[in-house]
Amino acid sequence: MPANKYxxxxxxxxxxxxxxxxxxxxxxxKMVEIEKISYFVPVRFFVQVCFYIIAIILxxxxxxxxxxxIKEINGENKDE
Length: 80
Description:
By secondary structure, the chain is mainly α. It has two helices and no strands. α1 packs antiparallel against α2 (44-74).
């Protein structure tokens, strides 16, 4: 794979990680807005847990992509 493609994938990993961190930062403020909708009041804990799970998946996937592409750029993964 060309080095340019690794760089793009590395940037995509950084973007995923940043999106996950941004979600964790914004969840408390958004939950205040969501609680104003009466339909979500009984399930607010479930909604909040789901948002945190999404954020953790974004961060984990981004970090995994960063790690794998840094290994590829440095030439450490020759088995593929």
